[in-house]
Amino acid sequence: MKLPHTFYQQTTIDVAKQLLGKYLVRKHPEGNTVGRIVETEAYVGPQDLACHASKGRTARTEVMFGPAGRAYVYFIYGFYNMLNLVTEAKDYPAAVLIRAVEPVDGVELMKERRKNHALRNLASGPGKLCQAFAIDRSLNGADLCDGILFVDDRGEPTPRFRATPRIGVDYAGKWKDKPYRFLIRGSEFVSRS
DNA sequence: CAAGAGATCATCT
DNA sequence: GATGATCTCTTGA
After folding, report:
1. Which tens digits make up the pLDDT trace of A24-46?
2. Is the separation of the CB atoms in A180 and A41 below 8 Å?
């Protein structure tokens, strides 16, 4: 069952935790890809110095200020796209970064796109999974209930998980140490332990 | 295996 | 003009 808009309207921390064990589905002419979400990060609002929206409302961050349940996709380091799911109320900028998934369906397609045959290395990082799932900025703002890109709840309970500080946000002052990164315990498909 | 550099561009100053 | 919510490859012990 496709997660509805109301799911994304919960607090960002709750959404980030509950996304663990759900299934990211990407429909594409080349074929569909599905992955079980094993790692997420919460970016909790304008006061969060690690959140892009803490810099204010700009063309780039506009999507985060929109209603919950849309995709925020941005391009970074000249190479990689990052996939976020917008959360909370309209005009409150927050989102969950999807950092890693365990490949489930469309594995051959992922291998082609990543030209790497190691299953563990197909989508174990935010840039990698966007490559494997053919996610780029054309999906920025996409409604997660439209059916091109969505999260599927297969009725599994949230797995045991662990929280750590977020990755790559050393510039965020006191916010850099907040335990807003969540990963499934024991999963070998996370970006790092 | 750990550490470091390079790749490369949209976004904001 | 600087920098970043990254990844891969190379180096060296």
Report:
1. 999 999 999 999 999 999 999 99
2. yes
pLDDT of residue A117: 82
Rg (CA), chain A: 15
Query: Which helix (DSSP H) or strand (DSSP E) does residue A177 occupy?
Result: none
**CB atoms near residue A187 (< 10 Å):** 20
Q: In the complex, which nucleotide's C1' lies nearest to the CA atom of residue A95?
A: C5
Residue segments in chain A with a per-residue pLDDT below the cut of 70: none
pLDDT score, position A116: 83
Q: Which pair of structure tokens corresponds to residue A193?
A: 């332990």
Nucleotide nearest to A75 (CA to C1'): B10
Going by DSSP bridges, is the β-strand pair A33-43/A181-184 parallel, antiparallel, or unpaired?
Answer: antiparallel
With tokens 């500080």, the residue in question is A165
Q: Which two tokens stand for residue A147?
A: 């059916």
- A57 — phi, psi (to 5°)? -85, 110
Is the C-beta of residue A79 closer than 7 Å to nucleic acid chain B? yes
Helical H segments across chain A, by residue range: 5-8, 12-18, 62-65, 107-114, 126-132
β-bridge mates for residue A42, sequence order: A96
